[in-house]
Write a structure and sequence with these properties.
Elements (H helix, E strand, L loop, with lengths): L6 E6 L8 H18 L3 E4 L11 H9 L6 E4 L2 E2 L5 H15 L3 E2 L1 E3 L6 H8 L11 H11 L9 E3 L2 E3 L15 E3 L3 H9 L3 E5 L1 E3 L6 H15 L8 E4 L2 E3 L5 H14 L12 E3 L3 E3 L1 H9 L9 E5 L6 H18 L6
Parallel strand pairs: 1-2, 1-16, 2-3, 3-5, 4-6, 6-9, 9-10, 10-12, 13-15
Antiparallel strand pairs: 7-8, 11-14
Helix pairs in contact: 1-10, 2-3, 3-5, 6-7, 9-10
């Protein structure tokens, strides 16, 4: 183990029933509250547009910011193809101020998923000219940093105007993360002085060994980053500790992992996306596996992903085992 685990976080998709969405959203907020009580350092939310998962993480973070006082709140990740960078910058800064500087925006680029089916609703007049490249991230960064976005500021009548996004939240720009799947995108993120989110899905460009690819991605990112080895990287694998799980829960967890395992055996689709195998077992078993994982050996921050289709009681058990057993086995101490 090259460095003890310093930051323990978790990621949730926030599933809900379309006929009763309030219950699922309330469950997500309670999970975040529990995370803070257990000492987790961060809670991350994943976007799901036109699905039964969180479509507006920023709204959830705003609500969570009023129920918590310490835990960091992030998105992993916000696909910028769905967003207007100026409006997003306003919302992020607002919630960052409400939370006392705890927002960690994670972003990615590229066309929205199922682009041909959603473009008419999302960009009815500009779909053919929208820019989904890194330039969209650069626009967001300029606005979050407080650079001018118009050529006018001052008073007009009784209205006072600013030439930069308001409110401005100092420090927010240093907490922007980029979700990279390829070596090239990791290099770009490092050159932009961003933080890196590396998940359980990577592009198999030159290898089919997930841990090897992730290790190379992280080292390439840090080689390109001004902070070098001190540049922040968070790993996001799916881990399911079973220490205090019931027999029924353990059976469900193992069935979940077994059903998802076939996609981890080889790169998937034309993009050659490689999925990491989910880790299920006792905290001791998971820790032993992680300590031998070349990607994990490069980081001291994690945001372990919660399975997407479990019940609230399952998340309580998994998070409790993570904080009280798995985290300490990896050298982490709750705050």
């Amino acid at each position: 183990m090259s460095r003890p685990l310093r930051t323990l976080g978790f990621l949730t998709i926030g599933v809900f029933d379309g006929d009763d969405p309030a219950a699922g959203h309330e469950s997500t907020l309670q999970v975040i509250q529990l995370g803070e009580q257990l000492g987790f350092d961060s809670a991350w939310l994943r976007h799901r547009h036109l699905q039964y998962g969180i479509s507006s993480p920023i709204a959830i973070m705003a609500a969570a910011s009023q129920r918590t006082s310490r835990i960091q709140l992030g998105t992993a990740v916000t696909p910028l193809g769905w967003e207007n960078p100026l409006r997003l910058a306003e919302d992020l800064a607002t919630v960052d101020i409400l939370s006392g500087g705890r927002v960690n925006p994670g972003v990615s680029v590229g066309p929205p998923m199922r682009w041909d089916e959603v473009k008419g609703a999302l960009y009815p007049d500009t779909a053919d000219i929208e820019d989904f490249t890194y330039a969209r991230v650069e626009r967001l960064l300029r606005m979050v940093r407080g650079e001018p976005v118009t050529g006018f500021s001052g008073t007009e009548g009784i209205e006072v105007f600013s030439d930069r996004v308001q409110p401005h939240s100092p420090g927010l720009a240093s907490r922007v993360w980029y979700g990279a799947a390829s070596i090239g995108s990791a290099t770009w993120a490092g050159e932009q002085s961003l933080n890196l989110l590396t998940s359980s899905v990577l592009r198999a460009d030159e290898s089919e060994d997930f841990a090897e690819i992730q290790q190379r991605q992280i080292r390439t990112f840090r080689a390109a980053h001004p902070d070098g080895d001190r540049a922040r990287v968070s790993q996001g694998l799916v881990v399911i500790p079973t220490d205090t799980a019931s027999a029924e829960q353990r059976a469900k967890y193992h069935a979940y992992v077994e059903a998802r395992t076939p996609r981890t055996t080889s790169p998937q689709g034309p993009g050659r996306m490689l999925f990491a195998r989910d880790l299920v077992g006792t905290s001791e078993e998971i820790a032993e596996n992680l300590l031998q994982h070349r990607g994990f050996q490069e980081v001291d921050e994690v945001a372990f992903a919660l399975p997407f289709s479990f019940e609230h009681a399952d998340y309580v058990q998994i998070l409790t085992d993570m904080a009280t057993r798995l985290g300490p086995a990896l050298g982490w101490s709750p705050r």
